[in-house]
Every structure is written in C-alpha cells, then in structure tokens.
Amino acid sequence: MQLKRTIVLVGMMGSGKSAIGRALSARLQVPFQDSDAAIEEAAQDTIAEIFARDGEAFFRRRESEVIARLLSGPPAVLSTGGGAFLAEGTRDTIAQAGIAVWLDAPLALLWERVRHKDTRPLLRTPDPLATLTKLYEDRTPIYAKAGLRLPVRHRNSIDQTTQSLIDLLLTHPDILEAAA
User: Fold this and answer.
1) What is the pTM (predicted TM-score) of this model?
2) Engineered SS bond to 11: which of 15, 58, 121, 162, CB 3.0-4.6 Å?
C-alpha cells in the first residue's frame, strides 16, 4: 500500500488516536508522529505542566505550530491532542497537507478509558464525567468537519479498528492506494 497524504487522527481524548496511530503506521510502514509528544519534547514539560503554567490558549498556539511543522514532511500518521482540531487554522492546515480522520468513539467508551487517568488536564475538575460530557457535546460538531469518520466500536481490538481504518482509507485512492 502507498500512503499519499498524511493521516491526521482527530477526536476526543480516549478515542484511540495514539494506539491506532501507532498500529496504522506499522501496518503502512510509514512514520508515526504524535503532536502531544512533540510538544512535550520541545517544551521539556508535560502537557499538564504547560496547561498549569501557561494556560490553554498558549498551549493551543504551540500545538498549532507543531502540527504545521509535523505536516511539512513526507506522508505519515499523525496523532493529535483532543483539542487540536478545534482551531479553524489548524483544521485548514490539516486539510491542505493531509486528511483528518475522526475516531468517533461513544461517550461511555471514552469515560471508561479516561476515568482513572490523571494525565488529562481538562478533566481535573470536581466532576470529570460532567466535564467530559460537556467537551464531547461541544466538540462533536467540530470533529464532524473531518474529511473522514471512523466509528470506534466498544469491543473492537486495536487490530480490528486499524483494519477498519485501512479499509476506509482504501476507498480513497487519493489517500491510500493498494499495491498493484
């Protein structure tokens, strides 16, 4: 298979962007990039520390810059933070240089995956489920602007979800072309 455009995975925290991204890059034999990891590497701090010290607006500006830089290279698989796709400028950059794929996971599955993690700065609230629900309701219409949508099923493994994503991408030969 030949990847012609960078696949940019977008969606809520816990939707599987990093896990599916790693598996997809391995299957397609292309580089895997993670915008959150790139931000942490550049800042020498965790996302949570950046949020606490500099605020969300500062973080989102740096995130947009990092995503643009990561998209400037050859086709790859790029996992983004849950809020990255919210910025119109970032959406435009992604559309020009790659293709956004929304990993659309149901709220119950997202909560199951993130409820015991303390690495999610936006969920450090008195009622993290209510916060996650509000984020989900606010962000879903924006994620729906992605070029492609992949429903994430509750019981599917990483391999099954990755295969579903490959099957979806193969229906778009301008993105992923099957070997001749």
Assistant:
1) 0.90
2) 15
